[in-house]
Amino acid sequence: MKKLLGASLCIWGICVVQTAIAQEKKSIKGIVKDEQGAIIPGVTVGIKHSGTGTVTGPDGSFHLNAAEKDTLVFSFVGYNKKEIAVNNQTDLKVKLASSATSLNETVVVGYGVQKKINLSGAVTSVNFDKTMQSRPVTDLSTALSGMAPGVSVSQASGQPGRENATIRIRGVGTLNNADPFILVDGIESSMSDVNMADVESISVLKDASAAAIYGSRAANGVVLITTKKGRKGKATVSYNGYYGVQKATRLFNVVSDYATYMQLMNRVATADNPSNTPPFKQATIDAWKNATDRTLYPNTDWMDVLFGQGKLTGHTVSVSGGSEKNSYYMSLDYLHNDGIVKNTSQDRYMMRLNADQEISKKIKVGANIALTWKERREPQDVGSILSLAGSTTPGMTPKVVDASGTRYGGRNTDDENGQLDNPLQYVETWSRPNRQQRAFAKVWGEWNIIDGLKLQVNGAGDYFNMGQKSYALAGAIQNRWNFQKNVVAQQLDQQPATLAQLDSTNLHLTYFATLNYNKNFGADHHINVLAGMSTESIRGTLFTGSIQNFPTNNTWELGAGLEQPKVGGTSDIYKIVSYFGRINYDYKGKYLLEANLRRDGSSKFRSGLQYGVYPSFSAAWRLIEEPFIKNAIPGWVNNLKLRASWGKLGNDRIPLNAFMSLYSAGVNYNYGGTISAGLAPLVMANPNITWEKTTTSNLGLDANLFNDHFNLTFDVFNRRTSDILVRLNLSSAYGGLTPPFQNVGIVENKGWELTLGYNNKAGDFRYGISGNVSNINNKVVKYQGNAIGTLNGASVLKEGWSIGTLYGLQTAGIFQNDDEVKAWAKQRTAGTNKPGDLKFVDMTGDHVVDGNDRINMGNTIPKWYYGLNLNAGYKGFDLALLFQGVGGVNRYYQDNWYTTGIRAGREINADFLNAWTPDNANTNIPRLTAAANTDNTQANTFWVQNASFVRLKNIQLSYTLPKKMFTSTISSIRVYVNAQNAFTWTKFKGLDPEVSDYTQPGIQYPNVRVITGGVNVIF
């Protein structure tokens, strides 16, 4: 028995030794990089079928012990998993390929970048593909339309040089400046001075957790623009050029037949008072009906006179390249834009240079330089000219050029109002040239102190100068002629030539430094800590001067004027100092935590109230990484993440020195019988004003499905701004004093956002669809109790309603006869209504319709925002469509171009040809009345229009030529045709439903439809 036991132990011992020899582990080291050769920290390196492993360090290296027969598994979010057999290897160089997943995208955030999969805040990254970059947009701000959920982009004008859009992120959060914080390469700047082709990426930070690192500057959201950098390797040259034509998206439909116009005027005069004498004689009407010479008897459509076809051409050349230790990107851009109104145009030149240089393995420096020069030409205020254009008639000849020279028309019949405006005269004899120059320079340095610890310093200067002249010609050219009688109809020579000039400069200096520590602790814990400080100063100067009476119409300099010289000027300075920090922590890439803290000090508040502290917190849970969830859901779910955040932000966007009393100089006083110069108070002081405060909470869900072909993002948010700075009305006892700001208002925006996208391909056919929809409800929580504040026209501020809610009387149809008038509540303070007038509802039931019967007529802030992108491609062909729209919005629309209040010398909208008459009672349009009869034109629901719209914002068809068709020196040739603002579906009857301020009833330069053709060549 002992011999048997001994033999067994011997055999067992031999087997153990052999197994130990076979499984003897050896030291394995290596480094992991991506396809471009960049190191990848945080990669999980595990032994297959084993619970042991490690992660790569900040330098991408790893070390572990493994047996020769083991297989190592390398995995990291956003990269394809890779397996490598150990065999006899001891030093591995591993390259991971990026997986076809949007989770691998790098998203620019405050003072850094993050993988999309690691985000815990509400951040939207705009895709700048080749279609986006070749869109012929004249201002970068307009390119965001429909591209991001919760982001409203409204381009109110198509005028060259004034196309910059109004951007609102998650509603209107304040009664003051609600613009987002715009940063270009980390420095506050203007989107209007960035060329579309230079943009690498745009990120929109929407909730407090994402934006709080910018503190008081981020209360209205943040837009981060990153421009292109050079790429190592052979230099690449790219050219993009296009030519296009443009016309107004819509113009007014006016009564251009003067005989019809005169008949309407006669009808109005006798309808108001049957004893009135019709202003136009029947002989005059008949003469126009029978005339053939339309110079003497014109039927002028002023839309055809004022608006035509504009031209657009653009050229961009860029060069990119670099070596192992440096890279560079440089671009030159030229844009010429001829507007659809005569004498409106702009020339724009841009240059950008981004470069970086590796000084050593630890130190890197770089610079970003951008220069912009713009020259805009316009006939003074185009909006005012268009308003004046409503004060004319189709019976006026615009202009005659003959042997007598250039003559502008006035009235051609003595029956007409003698004080007509000739808008073409203003367009051609007024001028306001505007020159803008911007020089932007940023230098930066980066020092990798030790592994994971990096210091970065940045300094930037942004210099902006604008010079402008406004002048009006003098002399006989300003007379207005009656061409029938060949005499002057209006003598305007008494108006001397006038020049007004201004010159303003703005110097914005920025300095900020950040210290960043990025460290993995074992295989499960990762921490990223950021600390920094920044200082900014903005110095502005303004000079103004004017003078009259010039010897000629060709000498427009202040020194050439002869009479009434005036000068003025001012300067100001604004400073802000900030300290900030951020901590990111994740456990196994499963639980993500982030905390931000920023302290800002602003010179807009007095000492003791200058500083505000703004914290934020966010967390995310990647459910897909939980085994009990991953095993319970289908395999086609690739990513599932929950996000939650809360934070507080600030806002100081009010005028400088608002906490102080302000005085006006140049006021004379009688002191002891002597006239003495003095000061007069302008603005009352309130030294206790301080920051507006915005608190935001957000819940979000991200999902990627079907091998990342389908993605979904859903967010619910609540944004509440308190201590809003408001100027409340003063008692009349204070005279004309401007009231002080007070921290009294509260505004709330609640809503949700949904983004869906699907992309796939079948052979050579590629296709994709992505859409976003947002619902935002705006409410004034606190203003001034039950008092109602007036904004513009019929829009008001009232607690419980949205900002700019329309306020007026409810209509109930049209009076058809005198009996209905008698039976209705009394509406007019003097006299009685007539058949054809609007009925107003007596809401109080006191049988009198007055101001107490006014109601909420609708909101001027949209409740719904939409965006839809469609794209398809087959081999070299690509088609892309972008739709944009808003819903649930109203606008009060009544002005010179759209009213039933008629007076002599005013255009009549053709819609009102269907106005009520005894013979045309089946209509919803009230009778035409004299302009002085304000009953029908007071604020009421008849004038409230649905301003919702859907617009095909952009459509582009392109073709990339096969490589075999051109020489080897050319890498790619792509030709395309593009249509901007192609089609619009709306019920709104004004020039364009896309406006920046729905409370404004006025007229603006129309938006334009642009058709272009272009080519993109890469060498």
Automatic annotation (TrEMBL):
Pfam families, sorted: CarbopepD_reg_2, Plug, TonB_dep_Rec_b-barrel
Domain of life assignment: Bacteria
Signal peptide location: 1-22
TonB-dependent receptor-like beta-barrel domain residues: 412-981
Bilayer topology: Multi-pass membrane protein
Region (Disordered): 396-421
Matches recorded under InterPro entries: Beta-barrel_TonB, Beta-barrel_TonB_sf, CarboxyPept-like_regulatory, Plug_dom, Plug_dom_sf, TonB-dep_OMP_SusC/RagA, TonB-dep_OMP_SusC/RagA_CS, TonB-dep_rcpt-like
Cross-referenced SUPFAM superfamilies: Carboxypeptidase regulatory domain-like (SSF49464), Porins (SSF56935)
Keyword annotations from UniProtKB, A to Z: Cell outer membrane, Membrane, Signal, TonB box, Transmembrane, Transmembrane beta strand, Transport
Domain TonB-dependent receptor plug: from-to ranges: 118-222
GO cellular component, one term: cell outer membrane
PROSITE patterns assigned: TONB_DEPENDENT_REC_3
Subcellular localization, as worded in the UniProt entry: Cell outer membrane
Main location: membrane
Family according to the record: Belongs to the TonB-dependent receptor family.
Protein name, UniProt field: TonB-linked SusC/RagA family outer membrane protein
